[in-house]
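<derive_structure_tokens>
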Amino acid sequence: MPPPSLTSRCRTDLRKPRLSDGHPGIRVPRLRNHRRRTLAAGWLWILVIGLAPAMAQNTGLPELGTSASRHLSTAEETRIGQAFYRQLVISPGYVGDYPLYDYIQSLGDRISTHSDLRGVRPVFSLYRDNAINAYAVPGGYITLNTGLLLTADNESELAAVVAHEIAHLTQRHLPRLIERTAAQKLPTLAAILASIVVGGEAGVAGVTAAAGASASSQLAYTREFEREADAIGIRLLADSGFDPRAMPEFFAKLDRATIHSGREVPEFLRTHPMSHARMAASQDRAAAYPERDYPDSLDYHLARARIRALLTVRQEDPLLYLRDQIQSESELEREAADYGMAVVLHERREFANALDLIRPLSRRYPDHPWIQSLHAQIELAMEEPEAAIARYRNIFEKHPEELYISYYLANAYLENDQPELARRHIRKQLRRHPEDLVLYKVQTKIHVALDQHAEADQSKAEYLVLMGNYGGAVSVLKRALRNTDEEGYLGQSITARIKELEAKIQ
């Protein structure tokens, strides 16, 4: 499954996999400020505020708060979502890990296919933050914090939050809130998104400062939205094969933990206001469904172990937790712990020990793309490129929908000094997936390896086009034109593309 782009719903942010990055394809920056990580996005469901109209204009977002613009069109929702998403994927906490993306997108797809969304496949993202939260943005963009995945005790609890956010999208809760606030002549959504786009302390402070003044006037309305999202979310859980009781149980667990521990209210409860009446109503709805067992998937446990291994915000040693999990009564948890420890050891360049852990899993799950790709990465690190390439090719033939395996395969070809094979492979995938950004990034790296700098700039320009940066793409193409014969085929194609993009800019 390819990650989503801004136009084809293929994910945007991935650095080129390379051994020096540890695990290929992952962005794990050091986050030095917790408030900077929040993006202030949780407030989207509570209030509509802004910093300044000029900021809204600079984002390219529609002006939504005037009395003449009380209804948000589908096109405007899409523009808002894309603008938000562009900022999300370049923010420090965005998680650009292929397998983790694959899991949350697959989970979301499983639930959203039973929803009333028409013509929109929600794009799911993961954000590196221990806070327990998730949020949905118009246009079909849903973000989950890593803390949510680690706090959920089972897959149905995680699915409950996903279903709840999908329900917010199907009911158009944020656009409805905009229409109401526009009628009251309150600040615009464009402005609140502008404050998020600004980011850093200025954006967070702007949202937080206005919260006290605006939240009370919106609270009753957002509670109505939460009740609607509960009702629809519980139905989605049941229809997609998850435990409908998980929704009230998870929310009640968060509420109890806050009361008994005296800790700060979790972000999810702050941004999704809870009441006793709402809790009782959701429990009654869930009780209408028959009780049965809802086993977790292997991927759920692997995802949690992978987050522990790679994305733990605090500085504790992930091996300590994973070693404890080996004593679990659950076989899936024990296997996931072995997988997680293999990831950690691979990161630490203890390749022989990592191989000892991954081999038994690889034999037991010969068709699992996560396990097989990690096995191949370890083989590549141990200077066994032929074995790694054979493993990548085998798993990609079995799972051609897992496009990230093709990224790994191309980079394995490069590691084995076979750039021409890498070029052919990626070219074939681009014909099938012409709007996948990561393919263009890998193709750029391949052209550089082949000393084809004009072609490398072409690939980089197409990446920028898919990111919506037409001006940057034109600049890169003009540089490419200086490195080639303008009268030749390549030069003529570059010239034509420049004219096409300049027309769009105008």
Residues 200-239 form the longest helix (40 residues). Confidence is low (pLDDT under 50) at residues 1-69, 194-217.
